[in-house]
């Protein structure tokens, strides 16, 4: 989705859940795929995510892998220790074991690929094992200046495209990983790639790079941040009616800018350009091409890296006004969320946001999901599916994908929120770390069952909840942020983001009075365009006007209390204490028998301990280390009772299992039965 842009004032003045008719425990595997690794391709064995695609014959499987239109059958599997000596076997497919078995889209099992002729290709995304500074260990891919694609990213192993006929019976296809994905030379000027380099400066565009001390400390490796300020001062005239304010995106911008295509110089429009520089940030991260520009327990202190490290560096290089009123946040979609979140968390740093069609501002509606009150993220109580993507054709709403379809499609590209796709990055940003070190997901990605306890932990990123719960007190946001929040969305937003905006407006209005936040909802507008659907020229003048009005000599200067350091939120220390490894460990508890000793035949009670949401439990009593009775299923939070029929040392053993978690048995302390 679109990036946020920071404007700095210059000093001079189809619905359905895929099901498989061949679950994995069915040993009748018809279609098998064997993939080996060519000699010399890998220096050492690797872990990773294998993605196998079946596309229409004579087509490039990568041409269309989208959830809304994909003609492909896509299968994924986590693989470990892959080397020349060890071929990968794929067969079957199941929705129960997405982290170890084959999982496919739109059908779970390989056995569901209809007979016919296909272009077949496989990819292996390589993971690196990283120990973060909070002690958590994850296997992730670090993107390489390549836009963090969900498949075929830089350094992936690839096979040739093979044309195969699937016969519909017992059959084995063979493929060979024989190449690595190279980074595409973008415009010949790129120094970048995995070393996180930059483009060459041009007359109008300066590229800035720093090594972030905070991010490098968190990830235990060098992490660089980039910014691409475009110096508007040197362009004399802006077109009156150029299109969307969709720049600078990471790569192609420099050429477009220099060739005059963005924006086309229009001398007839002859109006002086507002004096400001535009800054966009490149902040690709493990989990996504964009860190959401805030501090999070799963991605690290990206907010601090951008706001404290990079912006202060930029302000040393350029002659900008170093005051909140002259720092304006703007953006659409992901950038819409980033721009508003940064003003809300950092009233001490930024003056105002113009946030367009932002990602969900209030989790009463996460897109169209009623996250706080529904039992299931995919299906409503009336049986209908929760939609995710829509468009309007001739005024009629057409649903292109459901939340279930998108999440299942994401699962083929990665488990444990590692697909580099939209729902997974939300899990990583809004969620804390799970006890398995990966994002604590708010619902079961296969079934959609919502875990209220995990959702509760999202609340610091529910922006209306954050504002209303810090309305007064030390942050005093009701007063500090008044007049500084501008939001725009259309009623036909493709991702239902208007709903979160409406919830945000409702809840902030309830405490601040109608219009506390300036919210514009334009009828029949879809996802895209500038703030309030303005022409770029009008938009920049609006921003310029806001800066002038809120300057110390303006009509309504920002007060010192509105920008006081005490207004600051999303502090890294709090974020990692609340959501990092130690917090995940502290959430756990062992089973415990509620007695010091017990008579033979008398009843004891025990708790099953505390586990992460979604862990299913099986308990068993043991006396003197030997099973005493059969294992039985038990719910989290339950109290179990038992009357031991034998003397000895009594224990309760509870085994917890969850997808992407190591299955673990926890023992209560021993209680003497006499
Ligand atoms: C998982 O697979 C089973 C067996 O094929 C099927 O009955 C069930 O509906 C599937 N569940 C989901 C959520 O796809
Ligand atoms: C490939 O697909 C095209 C279009 O569907 C079809 O006309 C053609 O016969 C196919 N070729 C093979 C070898 O299956
Ligand atoms: C495979 O998925 C397609 C598209 O969702 C569906 O129409 C078809 O019935 C599925 N086939 C099987 C065997 O599940
Ligand atoms: C697949 O292609 C072969 C020719 O390569 C052709 O004989 C066969 O009919 C095709 N199968 C289908 C299902 O189109
Ligand atoms: C390997 O892939 C690159 C593109 O990433 C391509 O240019 C090259 O020709 C491929 N080499 C082989 C042997 O297929
Ligand atoms: C240039 O600006 C004028 C005046 O606003 C407008 O009428 C004209 O369409 C613009 N031309 C281009 C190429 O943008
Ligand atoms: C919209 O309606 C017009 C006239 O009825 C029709 O020609 C056109 O194909 C329709 N467009 C879409 C996208 O359905
Ligand atoms: C909201 O802001 C826009 C842009 O500055 C302005 O045109 C509009 O009047 C404002 N709405 C209210 C209710 O203040």
Automatic annotation (TrEMBL):
InterPro entries membership: AB_hydrolase_fold, Mycobacterial_A85_antigen
Protein name as annotated: Alpha/beta-hydrolase
PANTHER family registered for this protein in UniProt: ENTEROCHELIN ESTERASE-RELATED (PTHR48098), IRON(III) ENTEROBACTIN ESTERASE (PTHR48098:SF3)
Gene3D superfamilies per record: alpha/beta hydrolase
Lineage: Eukaryota, Fungi, Dikarya, Ascomycota, Pezizomycotina
Source domain of life: Eukaryota
Coiled coil location: none
Keyword Signal listed: yes
Range of residues in the leader sequence: 1-16
Keywords recorded for this protein, A-Z: Signal
The organism of origin for this protein: Bimuria novae-zelandiae CBS 107.79
């Amino acid at each position: 989705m679109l990036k946020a842009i920071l404007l700095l004032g210059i000093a001079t003045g189809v619905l359905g859940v895929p099901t498989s008719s061949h679950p994995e425990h069915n040993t009748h595997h018809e279609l098998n795929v064997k993939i080996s690794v060519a000699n010399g391709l890998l220096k050492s064995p690797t872990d990773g995510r294998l993605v196998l695609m079946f596309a229409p014959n004579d087509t490039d499987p990568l041409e269309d892998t989208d959830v809304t239109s994909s003609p492909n059958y896509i299968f994924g599997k986590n693989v470990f220790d892959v080397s020349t000596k060890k071929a990968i076997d794929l067969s079957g497919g199941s929705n129960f074991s997405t982290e170890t078995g084959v999982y496919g889209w739109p059908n779970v099992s390989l056995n569901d690929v209809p007979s016919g002729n296909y272009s077949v290709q496989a990819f292996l995304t390589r993971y690196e094992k990283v120990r973060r500074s909070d002690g958590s260990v994850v296997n992730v891919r670090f993107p390489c200046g390549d836009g963090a694609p969900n498949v075929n990213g830089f350094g992936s192993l690839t096979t040739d495209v093979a044309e195969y006929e699937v016969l519909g019976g017992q059959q084995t296809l063979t493929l060979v990983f024989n190449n690595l994905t190279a980074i595409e030379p973008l415009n010949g000027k790129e120094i970048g790639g995995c070393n996180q380099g930059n483009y060459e400066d041009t007359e109008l565009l300066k590229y800035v790079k720093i090594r972030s001390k905070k991010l490098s400390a968190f990830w235990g490796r060098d992490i660089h941040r980039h910014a691409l300020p475009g110096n508007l001062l040197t362009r004399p005239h802006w077109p009156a009616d150029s299109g969307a304010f969709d720049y600078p995106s990471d790569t192609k911008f420099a050429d477009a800018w220099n060739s005059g295509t963005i924006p086309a110089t229009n001398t007839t429009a002859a109006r002086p350009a507002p004096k400001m520089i535009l800054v966009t940030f490149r902040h690709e991260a493990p989990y996504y091409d964009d860190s959401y520009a805030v501090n999070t327990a799963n991605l690290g202190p990206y907010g601090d890296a951008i706001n404290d490290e990079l912006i202060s560096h930029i302000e040393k290089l350029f002659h900008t006004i170093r005051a909140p009123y002259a720092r304006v946040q703007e953006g659409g979609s992901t950038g819409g969320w980033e721009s508003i979140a940064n003003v809300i968390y950092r009233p001490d740093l930024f003056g105002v946001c113009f946030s367009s069609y932002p990602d969900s501002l209030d989790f009463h509606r996460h897109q169209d999901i009623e996250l706080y009150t529904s039992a299931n993220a995919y299906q409503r109580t009336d049986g209908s599916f929760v939609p995710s993507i829509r468009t309007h054709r001739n005024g009629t709403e057409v649903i292109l994908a459901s939340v279930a379809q998108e999440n299942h499609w994401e699962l083929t590209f990665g488990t444990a929120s590692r697909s580099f796709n939209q729902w997974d990055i939300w899990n990583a940003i809004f969620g804390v770390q799970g006890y398995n070190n990966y994002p604590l997901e708010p619902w079961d990605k296969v079934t959609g069952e919502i875990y209220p306890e995990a959702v509760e932990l999202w609340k610091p990123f529910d922006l209306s909840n954050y504002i209303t719960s810090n309305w007064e007190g030390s942050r005093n946001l009701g007063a500090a942020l008044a007049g500084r929040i501008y939001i725009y969305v259309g009623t036909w937003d493709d991702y239902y983001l208007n709903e979160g905006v409406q919830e945000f407006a409702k809840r902030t209005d309830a405490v601040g009075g109608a219009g506390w936040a300036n919210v514009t909802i334009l009828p029949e507008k879809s996802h895209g365009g500038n703030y309030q659907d303005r022409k770029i020229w009008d938009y920049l003048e609006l921003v310029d006007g806001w800066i002038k009005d809120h300057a110390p000599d303006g009509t309504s200067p920002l007060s010192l209390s509105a920008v006081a350091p005490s207004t600051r939120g999303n502090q890294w220390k709090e974020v990692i204490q609340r959501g990092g490894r130690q917090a995940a460990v502290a959430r756990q508890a062992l089973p415990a028998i509620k007695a010091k000793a017990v008579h033979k035949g008398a009843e004891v009670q025990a708790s099953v301990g505390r586990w992460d949401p979604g862990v299913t439990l099986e308990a068993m009593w043991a006396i003197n280390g030997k099973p005493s009775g059969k294992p039985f299923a038990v719910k989290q939070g339950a109290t179990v009772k038992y009357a031991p029929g034998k003397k000895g040392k009594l224990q309760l053993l509870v085994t917890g299992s969850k997808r992407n978690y190591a299955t673990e048995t926890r023992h209560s302390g021993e209680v003497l039965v006499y």
